Amino acid sequence: MSTRKRGIWAIIENSTKRKKARMSVLKKMIETGMRVSEDGRYYVGDIEVPDTAIAKALNIDRRVVRQTADFILMVPELENIFTKLQPTTFFKDVAHYLGFTVIVIESEPERPGVISEVTSIIARHKLIVRQALADDPELIPQPKLTLIIEGEVPSEVINELQTIKVVKSLTIIK
Q: How many domains does the chain have?
């Protein structure tokens, strides 16, 4: 995997050189979909999150949290991103209770086509994908593609998924 950062991570790293605590705030914002409003307050959806709560969760000084919000609003590239983030529901841990099956695929993230190959097999078997989440390889050391499938996944689908060349591992959670 390439170590060169692209996209949002290049912007973040260029803006947070030698500012480890600021970087931790920005990463937490990405992970949770937390945004900064135009007046510098933090929100998850429409719920305000106090600076002290973020500082406590990250074990950093609350002033760093405040300075990070101010900094975001001063840097146009960061403001364009961090004022528009949104949280997302992810059914992986509750799929069983909803009658869904979870397929977790670890592959080679730098190789294209994993999602299309997997979803082609699933579509051919007329299964319904309720959710799909591909981890960002620049944020997650061992990124995975996680699919939430309506109902049971037949064994022939699992066998076909295992034949995809770039698939390193396949986990089924019922």
A: 2
Q: Is the pTM of this model over 0.90?
A: no
Distance CA 167, CA 147 (A): 14
Looking at residue 127, its amino acid is L
Report d(CA 43, CA 86) in Å as an integer.
Answer: 9
For strand 144-150 and strand 100-107, is the pairing parallel, antiparallel, or unpaired? antiparallel
Tell me which DSSP letter residue 60 carries.
S
Looking at the structure, do residues 113 and 144 belong to the same domain, yes or no? yes
What are the residue ranges in the chain where pLDDT is below 50?
Answer: 1-2
Which amino acid does the sequence have at 12?
I
Could you report the per-residue pLDDT of 16-26, keeping only the tens digit for each?
A: 666 888 989 99
Q: Are 28 and 49 in contact (CB under 8 A)?
A: no
| Residue carrying structure tokens 């869904």 | 100
Cα end-to-end distance, the chain, whole Å: 31
In this structure, the answer to whether residues 22 and 66 fall within a common structural domain is yes
Return the residue matching tokens 């986990």. Answer: 171
Which residue range(s) make up the domain with 164?
92-173
